[in-house]
TrEMBL record:
This is DUF1501 domain-containing protein.
Length: 454
């Protein structure tokens, strides 16, 4: 909690000449002798904040069709291959769907995992957010999602920006939604751009919705800052005190969420979406601008940003023919994801920011009579980029029908171990504690980072 102490007697200065109303109290730090300026100074001395590693995790709601996206089987029987053709990319030997022409031109910046195994069979996003099978044995309180763990272990890069921000929209099918902080407790929940926790960011009664209004924000703390600025004392304070004052007046998070502050040409590059219309009523809206907002949040200081995107559960039937849906969805996704990766490279963020795209399982090799593909947990795909990884490669392969991992099976815990490594967290030593005081390693079965990406 942030407080500005302002006693009734404004004529009672402290010994340094600054009135009590200008004293900052940040939670309980004052009780242990650590003011925010001192804390920021200590962090600087320790090198904290000098390297901002981050992850953008994009969940494709409902399970994307791996064999129609990045693992096409043109020589398979017609009832398996589908109508789309593979095209070459700027990496010799790698082919992807013809509906991803932008990605094909910059495949050297992506890595495709074609042999993701160990998925569960139901529509549950938990495994994509935690790395743990939702039906497995969990500690008291439940497994926390990835962003909650990172926030717990690494804290905030910038005191004005939460370490974990969720751009996910609420889905009417409950298991599609993020599982939450689990055993770590609500203190490590994501800050959400929608829903009840829009009020998570509060300063003197000013909520997130009003933070964007600079006039209202300044009316809450105007006297505090003006007293200092007009006296000229701001210039005499050390840099960390100025940074602490900046926290109180910061609208950094609100600005990151406000795309009107972005170059319109960049916004246009990502493509347009609709935050109201749902492709399927229980999925997420198709909003590629969420990718842009995720980048802006990382720039502002977030360590982990989660995004849920569209609805990929294409069983077929009237109005849900899988190949018509792919012809509609794939180009929009192609534009949005390539704009994000291009953006990260142009801004010099590609070494520090890892992007992961996946869903809860793959789809059946055989096309159904309803012209759809059903749930298929035996093998799935993942798409990665950035993170300073040696991208421009394909990891693993499937059999001739795209139904089983044929080489180099990769597990969900291995993917999460890679994300933790890219953030500077050692999965061999780092633990989190459940609500009974027992420590737990971050990934199961001693999983290690994917060796091809180190």
């Amino acid at each position: 909690m942030l407080k500005i102490l302002a006693p009734a007697d404004h004529a009672s200065p402290l010994c340094d000449g600054v009135s009590r109303r200008n004293f900052l109290k940040i939670g309980g730090l004052g009780s242990i002798g650590l003011s925010l300026p001192k804390l920021l100074a200590l962090e600087s001395q320790a090198g904290i904040g000098s390297s901002h590693k981050s992850v953008i995790l994009i969940y494709l709601v409902g399970g994307p069709p791996h064999q129609d996206m990045f693992d096409l089987k043109p020589d398979a029987p017609r009832e398996i291959a589908g109508p789309h053709k593979p095209i070459g990319t700027n990496v010799p030997g790698i082919e992807i769907c013809e509906l991803f022409p932008r990605m094909a031109k910059m495949m050297d910046k992506f890595t495709v995992i074609r042999s993701l195994v160990g998925a569960q069979a139901g529509h549950d996003a938990a495994q994509c957010y935690t790395g743990h099978v939702p039906t497995g044995v969990a500690p008291p309180g439940g497994w926390p999602q990835f962003g909650s763990v990172v926030g717990r272990l690494q804290g905030a890069v910038d005191p004005a920006v939460p370490p974990f921000v969720s751009m996910c929209y609420d889905c009417t099918h409950g298991p599609y939604n993020e599982p939450g902080p689990g055993m770590l407790g609500s203190a490590h929940s994501a800050f959400r751009h929608t829903g009840p926790s829009r009020g998570d960011l509060t300063l003197q009664g000013i909520t997130y919705d009003r933070l964007a209004d600079r006039a209202r924000l300044l009316s809450s703390i105007d006297r505090f800052r003006r007293d200092v600025d007009n006296s000229g004392r701001m210039e005499g304070m050390d840099a960390f005190t100025q940074q602490a004052m900046g926290v109180l007046t910061s609208s950094k998070l609100a600005d990151a969420l406000d795309l009107s502050k972005e170059d319109p040409r960049i916004v246009a590059r990502y493509g347009m979406g609709d935050t109201v219309k749902r492709i399927d009523e229980n999925g997420a809206p198709r909003v590629p601008q969420s990718f842009l907002t995720a980048r802006r949040l990382v720039e502002a200081g977030a360590r982990v940003v989660t995004v849920n995107y569209s609805k990929w559960d294409w069983h077929g039937g009237p109005g849900n023919d899988i190949f018509s849906r792919e012809r509609e969805d794939f180009p929009i996704f192609d534009q949005g994801i390539t704009a994000l990766i291009e953006d990260l490279h142009q801004r010099g963020m590609d070494k520090d920011c890892t992007v992961l795209v996946w869903g809860e399982f793959g789809r059946t090799p055989i096309i159904s009579k309803q012209v759809g593909r059903d749930h298929w947990p035996r093998v799935a795909m993942a798409l990665l980029a950035g993170g300073g990884m040696p991208n421009g490669q394909v990891i693993g392969s499937t059999d001739r029908l795209g139904g089983e991992a044929d080489s180099r099976p990769v597990t969900f815990p291995e993917v999460f171990a890679t994300l933790y490594r890219n953030l500077g967290i050692d999965v061999n030593t780092a633990t989190v504690t459940d609500n009974k005081g027992r420590p737990h390693y971050l990934v199961e079965n001693g999983a290690q980072p994917i060796r091809e990406l180190i």
